[in-house]
Structures are given as structure tokens and as C-alpha cells.
Amino acid sequence: MAKGPYSEKVMDHFMNPRNMGEIEDANGIGEVGNPACGDVMKIFLKINDDMIVEDVKFKTFGCGAAIASSSMATELMIGKSVEELLQLTNDAIVEALGGLPPAKIHCSVMAEEAIEEALKDYYKSKGEDPSVVDDMKAKVKKDN
Ligand code: FES
């Protein structure tokens, strides 16, 4: 058992974040901030012609839980389709991390929102209407 409120997985991803950095030729970039805590998260996506995530990186200026959430999110995103990305909720991220304290759930919500923003940017970069992301997201929420 890990000491303190954080699971060993959270501590591991905080101390050794995976996929931290930027992607120069990203075709989807999402940035979100939480005005309450002042933390900012940025996700870079490289999506290939088959609409599969080939590469993903993140930059998070934020608390340990936000860094761990973004790191875990990137691990869950690689190799996934755009559709699968939309099904990646903050609950799934929290579960993969072995839990987060209640006061830190919003940190994982930021990761879900950053993915959404990055996907909207991806559609924009293709010259398509980014609101399809909202529509698909609403459908996922309804189906669950
Ligand atoms: Fe705000 Fe963690 S405290 S993202």
C-alpha cells in the first residue's frame, strides 16, 4: 500500500511521467486550464490517415495528480482510434491510476477535456466542423 492519499501508480506517473513533451507536426492540439487552481494542460496528437493515434505527448503545468492523469491518459491513447478516444473518460483515467482523492478528481477531468479540445483541433486542421466532437461525445455519454 502506498502511504498518503495517492496510489503507487499515481506516484509513479508523477515521478516518471510518460510521453512528456511536444509533437512538432501535431495535427491536433488541445489546451485547457482550470481557473480555480490555475493549472494548465496541453495535449499534442499525431493522428494518421486511418484516424489512429500514432503519437501523443503532453505538457502540464499543474499539480501532481494532473501530471499523473495526463501521463496515464497518453498511455491509454496510443494506438486508439478517434472514436475510442472520445470514450476515454476521466473515470477510466482515475481507474487506471488506481484512484484519486475526491479533491483531485478535477485534475483527471482536465485530461478528458484536453483530449476533446485536441480532437476538435484535429477536425479543424482537416477543414471539418469541430462540433462533430461534441455530437459524438454527447452520444457516448447517452450510451453509457
Ligand atoms: Fe488543479 Fe490538480 S489541483 S489540476
From TrEMBL:
Name recorded for this polypeptide: FeS cluster assembly scaffold protein NifU
Gene3D superfamilies in alphabetical order: 3.90.1010.10
Domain NIF system FeS cluster assembly NifU N-terminal: 6-126
Organism: Denitrovibrio acetiphilus (strain DSM 12809 / NBRC 114555 / N2460)
TM spans (from-to): none
GO molecular function, one term: iron ion binding
Classification via CDD domains: IscU_like
GO biological process: iron-sulfur cluster assembly
